[in-house]
Amino acid sequence: MAILKILKYGDEILRKKSKEVSKVSKKIRILAENMIDTMYANNGVGLAAPQVGENIRMFVIDVSQDDEPLNPIVFINPKIIKKSGAIKSNEGCLSFPKAYVDVRRYKNIMVKALDLNGRPFIMEAKDGELLARAIQHEYDHLDGILFIDHSRNIFDAIEVLRQNDLPSIEQDKILDEPELEEEILKQESVNKE
Ligand code: ZN
C-alpha cells in the first residue's frame, strides 16, 4: 500500500474532465486501495482519482465516525440519478489545505456506481447527511468542478483562499445556482423565526 501525493488547487489536472473506467482491473483496484490509504493518512472523508493525478472516474469515501469501524466505499463510473432539496454545507478539500467555505448542495441524492468487483450498486443519501454531501463533492471532481465553484459568498471564498496562500478563485467557474440558494435562504429565514 502506498500514500499518494495529493495535487493542490492550481494544478490543471483538477480542472480536467475524467474518463470512464473501461475495466475494473488489478491496476484500478490497487489505485483504489492506495487512494483509501491516502485519504486516511490525510484525515479526509473522501478522495477522487484526479486529486492523485489520475483523470479517471473513481472516488473513495469513508464517513464513519471515530468510534465506528472503518467503512471505505469505492465508487467507479458513478452517476447521480436523483437529486432534490438544498442545503448549506461547510466544506474543505484535501486539495485546499485548511480552507473551508460555505457551499450549496442538494439535500438528497441517489447514486449508481460500480464496486471494486465491477458490480453495480445504488446508494441513497438523505437529509443533507455527510455522505450525501461527500458524494456530490467527490463526484464533481470527476468533471473538473471544485467545491469553491459552489460558493454561496464569492467574497468569503476569495478571502479564505487568500488567507491560506492558495491561488485565487476562477470567477468564470463559479456556478449560478438560484434554485438551491433560494431554498437555503428560505430555510435560514425559518430558522431565525
Ligand atoms: Zn475535494
How would you describe the overall organization of this protein?
With 193 residues, the protein is of the alpha+beta class. It has one domain: Peptide Deformylase (Alpha-Beta Complex). It contains four helices and seven strands. The strands form two sheets. A five-stranded antiparallel β-sheet has the order 1-2-3-6-7, with helices on both faces. It has a two-stranded antiparallel ribbon with strand order 4-5. Strand 4 (87-93) and strand 5 (96-105) form a beta hairpin. The chain is globular. The mean pLDDT is 97. The structure holds zinc ion (ZN).
Which short descriptors sum up this protein?
193 residues, alpha+beta, Peptide Deformylase, five-stranded antiparallel beta sheet, 25% strand, globular, binds zinc ion
Outline the fold blueprint:
Elements: H1 26-41, E1 46-48, E2 58-61, E3 73-84, E4 87-93, E5 96-105, E6 108-114, E7 120-125, H2 130-142, H3 154-163, H4 178-192
Antiparallel strand pairs: 1-2, 2-3, 3-6, 4-5, 6-7
The chain binds zinc ion.
What is the terminal-to-terminal distance? Answer: 52 Å
The ordered string of helix (H) and strand (E) elements is HEEEEEEEHHH
Shape: globular
Corresponding CATH superfamily = Peptide deformylase
Overall average residue pLDDT: 97
Low-confidence stretches: none
- How much of the sequence lies in strands comes to 25-35%
The main pleated sheet reads as: 5 strands, antiparallel
The set of bound ligands, ions and cofactors reads:
zinc ion
Count of runs of 4 or more consecutive helical residues = 4
Task: Give the beta-strand count.
Answer: 7
Strand order of the largest sheet: 1-2-3-6-7
Q: Rounded to an integer, what's the Rg over CA atoms? A: 16 Å
CATH classification class: Alpha Beta
Shape-level CATH architecture: Alpha-Beta Complex
